Fold these 3 entries.
Entry 1:
Amino acid sequence: MDLPSIRSAYKRYALTYDAFFGPIFAGGRRMAVQLANTAANQRILEVGVGTGLSLPDYREDARVVGIDVSPDMLKIARERARGLSQVEALLEMDAEQLAFPDNSFDSVVAMYVASVVPHPERLLAEMQRVCIPGGDVLVINHFASNHPVVRRMERGLRPLSKILGFRTDMELDSLPRLPGLERIDVRNANLFGYWKLVHYRHDEELPDGPLTGEALAG
Ligand SMILES: C[S@@+](CC[C@H](N)C(=O)[O-])C[C@H]1O[C@@H](n2cnc3c(N)ncnc32)[C@H](O)[C@@H]1O
């Protein structure tokens, strides 16, 4: 996946996205928002906010910033956000190079985005960097199945990733174990546990500071 193919795939999806991907992903979105938005007046970043389907689920006293690389998806999110007091901003931005200072948000969420971005390890490092120490980082995504037949099908679909707009066979382990980012839970979300919610906590004390996307890229 690269940014031009992502933009082009989600330009195609934008108008029908809510009808297809609204209901099936709804349970996981609510679960992630509940874990991210646990207290009053939190500032929360949602990366790959898409058409903003999750925005009404945040508390009214939250300050939610959503970012996405697709202007077509963001356009719909902006319409949805009208009248939602919890939405602070919706910005066009690459999740792998966030334009926010370190420790800007109480929690950071990525829903159904990790298998779309070109470098999931950079996505996770950036989510950690902008999250305050002690804050929550949540990733919900489909990961490659353990069932041999389903797994073969997922592998078979890999060449279609650019057209589909996501990788069908992403391994959970392609989200790296980063220093200072503790994986505290992995739980099933949505139908049959086909999607999983991975809950990280950004440690209070970091040994050498968080890795950045650049550092990871070497
Ligand atoms: C499957 S959609 C998920 C949208 C939304 N999170 C939801 O729950 O429906 C994936 C979204 O990630 C966005 N995306 C992909 N790569 C991105 C990147 N590098 N930076 C920001 N957004 C990205 C896409 O444009 C798309 O809107």
Entry 2:
Amino acid sequence: MENEKIKQTSLEIKERFAKVNVQIQERDIVEQLSILVNKFRVPLNEASRNVTSRLLKIHNINPDEFFATAGFANQNPVKISELIEDNKWCSFNARVSILWEPKHEKILQTGVLGDETGTVVFTTWKSSGAPVLEEGKCYLFKNVVTSLWQERISIKVNKNSEITPFSGEITIAKKLVTVVGALVDLQQGSGLIKRCPECNRSLVKGACADHGRVEGVYDLRIKGVIDNGAVSQDIILNRELTERLTGITLDGAKEIAMESMDSRTVADNMGAMLIGRYFEVSGVQIEKNLIVDSIKPFKADVMNQVDALLVAVEA
Ligand SMILES: [Zn+2]
């Protein structure tokens, strides 16, 4: 019932403004929302933000004060597991678990945030003016908005959001997935790679999709495929795991690349070492990739006995 939702959202907006002592006619809000939603096909959550910012301007209200006092954002940070409703303003502390390469030019960063209760995907738009976040660091996210899409909650950072470093410790809850199988392939982007110093994206031919030609920062990683006949799983190993598994350090990889005058030699060497061997890998499944936490050799001769154990999921 679209109209029910519009009424409910209108009431919420009215109440928020009432908290800063501005009385607004509910039917005016309903009317504005209806035009945006029904005539212009704007999603309700966007329409709600649009109407709110218009009202802020009309009534000359400082948005920062409004969002701080109107209960728009929850003053007390919540836990990620509590983020279940669509289009809710919220605040929480989280650690940046992983950053992905943005697929759209308007996106500044996207990736996964986590705390001890769960994980959530986030997106910051360039237009939000949000700071660039670093993988592994903890931040306080204030006045961000939840968005429900295909039954999954994600977080949008907007112009009214505030992201500041958080000094506390946050351990991310992990839903571990374990897969046993042979490493059958190392994919493009394995071995010695360079990342953009601005956004951490891996460079293609020395250029960042976003920042163009930059002085890249070296990194090591493995993007591989584990296959056991029943399951084919893409896996990603970070520098630390790659170094431990292959015995090739970042400095060693640079030497190999220099000697052969080809950085691809590093991935070739790693492939020669690893492809065809069996491993037991555990990690966190994020979209199609398993972000590996631990990888250990697996004896192929016991493979037959472990058909039932191919994919074990721990809570
Ligand atoms: Zn970049």
Entry 3:
Amino acid sequence: MENRVAHLEKRIRGNLERLGFELHSFKVEWYNAVLPSAFHLPYSENTLAFVVLSIPAMFDKAFKPFLKNQLLEKIHDPVDQCVFHHLSLVRENLADLRVNIMYDYEMLPNRKPRFLAQTAAHVSGAAYYYQRKDVQQDPWGEKKIYGVCIHPCYGGWFAIRALLIFPDVEAPFLQQNLPVDCVRTEGEKIELLDKFNFHWQDWSYRDIIEVKEKYSEEQKMYFATPPAERLKLLGLQGGLKRNTMY
Ligand code: B12
């Protein structure tokens, strides 16, 4: 059983890591344990799952080649289409196994997200999810404060793209790795949540820790450009409707 999981993980990593994606395994039990039932993933507790992140290299290694080779559907976001394309290839490569893929942008009929990306990143050990309750002396009063994940190598320069769930694979032995609490002090945690909530457009929350690599000027320019102009920026035609900045 352990070998089967290790082998599976190696196969998926082989497909995704060279494209600027990161993969972190977890058990459904860990995710469901911190959420109310309305958000539970409907699988047994030992079910094996992976959270897929894109790191700064994804833009050059996966996205730009994808744009050159594919016919884009204009109504969908090109980065989402690129991620969808590569995860569909993973599915094809695993034709012998059932895999359910959930994307960060998918909503349920009740308008809740299909999965909570930040909770998945935290419980898998990929990136610490800093929330208002991590701060003792809360300065925000009545304001609504959204939480944010920080990756130990890439700070805020990454995105949480998808979950891969293997309904037929049980991983009772999987050991949970706790995420690195890299934003150490109370003051830095407050600064992080302030920046993410009130100044997210200036990118500064992403640099709350020293990072190994961040988005290139070109990648930042792409995400900062209104959707209708984005393809032109990369020398391609056409306008876009969905505006992601991940
Ligand atoms: C809806 C949404 C928004 C909405 C609302 C935000 C929100 N957090 O509710 C809006 C439009 C405002 C928004 C904005 C942004 N967003 Co947004 N958004 C989402 C989305 C699709 C769903 C989030 C959601 O609805 N959460 C529901 C709430 C209830 O969840 P929650 O607050 O985490 O509460 C749960 C936890 O606290 C948990 N819990 C309880 N106890 C414990 C204990 C532990 C240990 C843990 C782990 C969990 C846990 O239980 C709660 C539920 O009951 C996610 C992608 C996804 N699928 O998750 C991206 C996402 C959160 N957004 C993201 C980003 C980057 C942004 C923006 C910067 C940029 C942009 N272009 O949109 C802005 C910044 C915020 C701002 N200042 O406005 C990133 C964050 C990445 C990161 N590093 O954390 C995400 C993950 C998308 C991604 N693909 O990477 N967003």
